[in-house]
Prior knowledge:
The protein is α/β, with parallel strands linked by helices. The protein has helices at residues 40-57, 97-105, 114-125, 184-188, 190-201, 219-225, 230-254, 270-283, 286-289, 303-313, and strands at 5-10, 14-20, 26-33, 68-72, 76-77, 82-83, 109-113, 134-139, 143-149, 152-153, 258-262, 293-296. The strands form 3 sheets. It has a 5-stranded mixed beta sheet with strand order 3-2-1-4-7, sandwiched between helices.
Amino acid sequence: MPRPVLALDIGGTKLTAGVITPEGEVMEHCLRPTDAGASPPEILETLLEMAEEVLSQAPAEWNQLAGIGLSFGGPVDFTSGRTITCHHLAGWEGVPLRHLVAERAGLPVVMDNDANAAALGETAFGAGKGCRHLLYLTVSTGIGAGLILDGEVYRGANSMAGEMGHIAVAPGGPVCTCGRRGCLEAVAAGPAIARAAREALAHEPGSVLAAVPRSELTARHVAEAAESDALAARVMTQVGEYLGMAIACAVNVLNPEIVVVGGGVSQAGDLVLAPARKVVAGLAAAESGRHLRIVAGELDPLAALLGAAALALAEGGPAESR
């Protein structure tokens, strides 16, 4: 009988652990906020405590698991199992995370960045099921992308493929977490949406968003108000247009059959996707975009977790065990 896997996700704002069946059923899972001030060893301890918690609730024990899939919210070296960096958490340069988890758990561990994991998850269990050429774009605290080309995750020469959040779409624009200006992440990720709304409120105090304290205003507030508020709708349309510019570039190079947009911002649906589709239709090469679909992901808010499970369930790829 196929055995379940343990899936672990380290994100910039949350940690998630779950026990997942080979069919993608989440048997148990738990979620905790990420302590941005915690060190990598402290975050790992918390994550392993969460693993113990979900295993105690699921009809499975450590020795009944097929392995562990690990998703990390930043670039990783897939071959060595080390994190490269994280733009939202400090201290993650060169951490041998796959080895540390395998050493503690005594099980095979496969690790990748969260966007690659989610791309694999959407292909295995979600909106891209049955597709062989998929571009996955995650838009939340940051922006990243995962590529499935000819049915396989494409990672590039040194595991850095898919950094679409750092495509310059607004030259001279806001400073990004990477230090450059005008990156997609700097104008279309969650914090950028909130910032754009706060700036617009200085000139349009009549918006319903004015009722939210400026320091508490989030992308969620903007998305929820966009159906009826002109300021919020304009901000979300601009986000969709920026996403469309980046997607069009990728479509012209990669020619995917589907683009899946996940992450918290994707929950705005056509408020973001409709302007993105319009821009892609105008910028993508005619043949590349002829049959392209741009859709919202189906696995949020557990896309990275299910992607981590898909990593562990997929055959091949570097794994490590004690």
